[in-house]
Write a structure and sequence with these properties.
By secondary structure, the protein is of the alpha/beta class. The protein has helices at residues 50-61, 69-72, 80-98, 128-137, 151-165, 181-190, 208-217, 232-238, 248-251, 254-266, 281-292, 305-313, 337-343; strands spanning 3-13, 22-31, 36-41, 113-122, 142-146, 170-174, 196-200, 222-226, 243-247, 270-275, 300-302, 318-319, 322-324.
């Protein structure tokens, strides 16, 4: 079960709604037993540096057992995203060798299906309800609606959703840190009776004292997306929000995110996970963590429409609006050869500067 090689592949992900392609680095490890494992992360790497990156990183991991994950998580020379991708690949390889899905190593399959929330559009999108209806037709009833930057437009869109679909939809509102304090108070007055699950990144500041003051003044479920593990303790200590949304890749992987979940749960703060651009590997990792962690009761976020489609192409399944936890060994999905051949970032002309 020793790592004998690691290679990187740069994948081009075209946004579902147009725009510049995003880059995704696939990590592929090989073991001395012939098993392999896959991981992924959004990294600002270029095509021409992949071999140099491999030559730099391989000495850190060669000869390591794929289950020596605590040691891997302490390799501070590697960025959290790269550690997360390598750890993901190690979990995948270990599961394949031992014939078990990853969730079995994390405490077992507490639940077999996982709810997720999906971004349906901004409040000023004229096709918002039509887009939402397409999600609803697929059984997806947890929606994230983004702000248009104007309180009146946001409130109008949220009311239209409630009027058309009633309480069958669970709504999250993403304010994207655009609201000054006084505007946030006005918004909170307007959403009474709309039954929002949470308002995410509400204030135009990251000052936790302002969030704490707002929590005292309004009856509104406040949530923060937390990207930096260093900010976790201060956020929990302030008791300024009701819920945290965490990105596993930015925290350094499954082991690190489980530590964060345990600390937040002990502090009485709700937690859910989020996945950005993914071929499905990060989504599968999220599903395994959700399957093995009883305290994760809220829907997790998949904010990119292309991630949804690519995850399904990679073999993940949605039934009745819930993602099924893969029960095959490892992460439970295979990276599609078709995707590798079609989506590889294979020419420097596509290597846009970052």
């Amino acid at each position: 079960m020793l790592i004998c090689d690691v290679e990187f592949q740069l994948i081009k992900i075209n946004p579902a709604r147009g725009g510049i392609p995003e880059r995704l680095v696939l990590v592929h490890i090989q073991t001395d037993e012939g098993a392999d494992g896959w991981g992924e992360a959004q990294l600002p790497w270029r095509l021409g540096e992949l071999i140099q990156r491999r030559d730099m990183i391989l000495p850190f991991v060669a000869g390591k057992n794929v289950l020596d994950l605590a040691e891997l998580s302490r390799l501070e020379r590697l960025s959290p995203k790269l550690r997360a991708a390598l750890e993901m690949a190690c979990w995948d390889a270990a599961g394949k060798i031992l014939g078990q899905p990853v969730c079995r190593f994390l405490g077992g399959t507490y639940r077999t299906r996982i709810p997720t929330a999906h971004y349906v559009g901004d409040s000023d999108d004229p096709r918002l309800l039509d887009r939402g209806q397409r999600w609803l037709d697929k059984g997806i009833t947890n929606w994230v609606v983004g702000t248009c930057g104007k309180v009146e437009g946001d409130l109008s869109a949220l009311r239209r959703i409630r009027e058309r679909l009633g309480t069958s939809i669970r709504l999250r509102f993403d304010a994207r840190s655009q609201f000054p304090y006084d505007v946030a108070l006005r918004f909170c007055s307007g959403i009474q009776g709309l039954g929002l699950d949470m308002v995410i990144d509400f204030l135009k500041t990251d000052n936790l004292d302002c969030y704490q003051r707002l929590a005292w003044e309004v009856d509104c479920p406040l949530a923060l997306r937390l990207d930096d593990p260093a900010n976790l303790w201060g956020t929990l200590k302030s008791q300024s929000v009701h819920h945290l949304i965490l990105d596993m890749t930015k925290f350094g992987g499954i082991l690190s995110i489980r530590d964060a979940i345990a600390v937040a749960t002990a502090a009485g703060i709700g937690v859910s996970l989020t996945v950005g651009t993914s071929l499905g590997l990060a989504v599968a990792s999220m599903l395994h963590v959700g399957a093995a962690t009883p305290s994760l009761v809220s829907a997790h976020e998949i904010v990119c429409e292309e991630t949804l489609h690519l995850s399904i192409r990679s073999g993940l399944k949605i039934r009745d609006g819930l993602w099924e936890v893969p029960d095959a060994p490892g992460l439970g999905i295979e990276v599609s050869r078709e995707i590798l051949e079609q989506e590889t970032w294979s020419h420097d002309l596509w290597d846009f500067p970052v």
